[in-house]
Amino acid sequence: MERLYINLGKKSYWINIGENLLSSILNYTGHADKWVIITDENVDRIYGEEVMKAFNGKEVFKYVIPPGESSKNIVTVTEIMSFMLDNQLTRKSKLIALGGGVVGDLAGFCASIYMRGMEWIQVPTTLLAQIDSSVGGKTGVNMPQAKNVVGTFSQPKAVVIDLNVLKTLSNRELISGIAEVIKYGVIYDYQFLNYVDENYRNILSLEDDVIKYVIKKCCEIKAYIVSKDEREDDLRKILNFGHTIGHALESITKYEDYTHGEAVIVGMYYEAKMALIMGLINNEYFEEIVKVLEKTNINPDINRFDKNTLIDIMSNDKKNLKDKISFILPYEPGKVNELLLSKEEITWDKE
Predict the structure, then answer these.
(1) Does 231 participate in catalysis according to the annotation?
(2) What is the rounded distance in angstroms from the CA atom of residue 261 to the CA atom of residue 169?
(3) Is 284 designated active site?
């Protein structure tokens, strides 16, 4: 088993990476008077019984939500809060977020506000959640106007990554995770981007040594960034590459056409193209980024959407400053910068 340490002073915690960890989950979670597991219907069907058995007679409750972004809202939060109160969970209880990014964001938010804060543990079950959303303490829910605009920074007490769960994922779900893998290469480690390019098929087929290396490498990068900038004041902003446009695409399609990773893939394509148009990167590097993105077979065409509507959605992003929209754009291999652009300065459709 591999372990990585997130160094955040009193809020520090371990990321545990290995196989068959679900059945021994109590080894990584500490003690509590009661437990509540938040999961979704898909995950519960496959792993719910196994995880409940792992608590070995402890007082544990389970709340199951419908899968997908449609559950990530204030109404669901209220329902979970009521369930926890009805079952008399206390500040000494602990919450387990068992699922992908939606479950982690939602459950973490609930933990951060229940009785002004309770301890919680991330148990991510998708590749995207294992390498990205489970690490760093961002929690939140969506509003009709924008994604993740209501939320908190609340670090988990531990992250438990069981590699075996990846075997139940569809190719579409794996590609959604690979989107964030590619992102790490563009924003931080050019050699890793080349590794992903060369080993794409092995990542998608979950070749043992390759997927272990990729997950650990991504967690190492995320751990370093979060340890330097927990609350996204500076360095952590680089993790938003592809997300300004990506979030707008999710919003304009009501979270129905794209998975999060698919939207980020399209977002990275157009944000890299913006960097090319603005002269931040040369055509050779742009083509390198595109070459990796094309391996996912995600169609980047967004001509069916009104550009001005997309930009209006981006203007609601919480990272914006005054009337400027925040973009993370590459300027050389493995490096990105934040640029604040007015609506008039945004262009991605020049040939």
Answers:
(1) no
(2) 14
(3) no
Q: Does 138 participate in catalysis according to the annotation? A: yes
Q: Is 121 helix (H, G, I), strand (E, B) or coil?
A: strand
Rounded Cα distance between 330 and 281, Å, is 7
Q: Active site residue: 94, 217, 237, 260, which one?
A: 260
Q: Does the active-site annotation cover 3?
A: no
Annotated active-site residue 318? The verdict is no
C-alpha to C-alpha distance for 236 and 344, rounded to whole angstroms: 26
Is 60 within 8 Å of 84 (Cβ atoms)? no
Does 208 carry a binding-site annotation? no
291 labelled catalytic: no
Question: Has 126 been labeled as part of a binding site?
Answer: yes
220 is in an annotated binding site: no
Complete domains list, the chain, with CATH? 2-168 (3.40.50.1970), 171-345 (1.20.1090.10)
Reading the chain (351 residues) residue by residue, the pLDDT tens digits are 999 999 999 999 999 999 999 999 999 999 999 999 999 999 999 999 999 999 988 999 999 999 999 999 999 999 999 999 999 999 999 999 999 999 999 999 999 999 999 999 999 999 999 999 999 999 999 988 778 889 999 999 999 999 999 999 999 999 999 999 999 999 999 999 999 999 999 999 999 999 999 999 999 999 999 999 999 999 999 999 999 999 999 999 998 999 999 999 999 999 999 999 999 999 999 999 999 999 999 999 999 999 999 999 999 887 888 889 999 999 999 999 999 999 999 999 865
168 assigned binding-site residue: no
Is the full-model pTM beyond 0.85?
Answer: yes
Paired tokens of 186: 């563009």
Of 85, 81, 71, 176, the residue nearest 133 (C-alpha): 176
